[in-house]
Design a protein that fits this description.
single chain; Alpha-Beta Plaits; 2 domains; five-stranded mixed beta sheet; 12 helices; 10 strands; 42% helix
Length: 297
């Protein structure tokens, strides 16, 4: 079984309403205390336009994912494999025991603020591309103002770039070999060189963190490989800010013996992505506490 931890793009207004009575809702309160952000308000009262801001969405997604993971574990289900998407790697690291909740929250607060600042310094955005033909990826790689940010499936990419470059891509995507191009409502060109200043800020925070140990198996976004040590993950979390999230490669790296996925809240996106990447026998998306009843060890 693999536990899937979503990134900030999965979050919407009211995502935490169904989980307020969870015995682990205190996680939300603690993340708010550590970061001086009203995470409980973000998860229960904030509208979509208020919660999607980068520095807010990351903390709220992180907190809610861990509430649902702890609820799952309390029911006797502890997945051996942990896989996060972008921000979700921090959630997976806390779930594994390699990071404490407080350190994870502090790192995400630094990361979110730094990414927001980098986006102001180097304006950009992201576009989702679908249905790429042969050579479509190579055409993107040849550009110096566009960068592959997420590899979410076969022929399914998210590209970061400068605003002018993305306008050109939206106008010419069919000419470049893509069937569909959709602009994403994000605050910057994430997972690209335009996040270099955020990477430097996160590096300083990562150097001050105390790391634990784990018996879980974590697969990284950067290279689709298993990593279990602090030195490895310190480097991977840094590189992830300016490198592509290879969710396709990470999912394919799961052994064929892994036949069940359980996606933490706010759930749905990663269940859909994994379903298109490879077959699984059982897939669960934890939208509300009732969904926990369906998951068995």
């Amino acid at each position: 079984m693999v536990a899937l931890f979503p990134g900030q793009g999965s979050l919407g207004g009211g995502a935490g309403l169904a989980w307020r009575d969870s015995p682990h809702w205190s996680v939300v309160q603690r993340v708010g205390e550590v970061t001086d952000v009203d995470v409980a308000w973000l998860l229960t009262e904030a509208a979509d336009q208020d919660v999607v801001r980068t520095d807010r969405a990351q903390l709220a997604t992180f907190a809610l994912s861990l509430v649902t993971y702890l609820d799952l574990v309390e029911r006797g289900v502890r997945p051996r494999y942990l896989l996060g998407h972008s921000l979700g790697e921090f959630s997976a690291l806390v779930a594994s025991g390699l990071l404490t909740l407080d350190d994870g929250a502090s790192l995400i607060a630094v990361r979110g603020r730094a990414m927001a600042r980098a986006a102001e310094e180097s304006p950009g955005s992201m576009v989702a591309l679908m249905g790429g033909d042969d050579g479509a990826r190579e055409a993107l790689d040849a550009r110096s103002d566009l960068w592959v940010a997420n590899v979410n499936g076969t022929g399914q990419l998210v590209v970061s770039g400068t605003l002018d470059a993305l306008d050109d891509l939206l106008a010419r995507h069919r000419e470049l070999g893509w069937r569909r191009a959709t602009p994403l409502p994000v605050g910057g060109a994430f997972h690209s060189p335009l996040m270099a200043s955020a990477q430097r800020a996160l590096d300083g925070a990562l150097a001050a963190v105390h790391w634990g140990a784990t018996d879980a198996t974590l697969i990284a976004n950067v290279d689709g490989r298993v990593h279990t040590t602090a030195d490895e993950w310190r480097d991977l979390l840094s590189r992830q800010l300016t490198s592509p999230v290879d969710f396709l490669g990470a999912t394919l790296a799961l052994p064929t013996t892994v036949t069940t996925t359980v996606e933490m809240a706010p759930a749905g996106v990663l269940t859909g992505l994994t379903r298109r990447i490879r077959p699984f026998v059982h897939q669960f998306a934890l939208h509300d506490p009732h969904d926990l009843d369906e998951v068995t060890p």
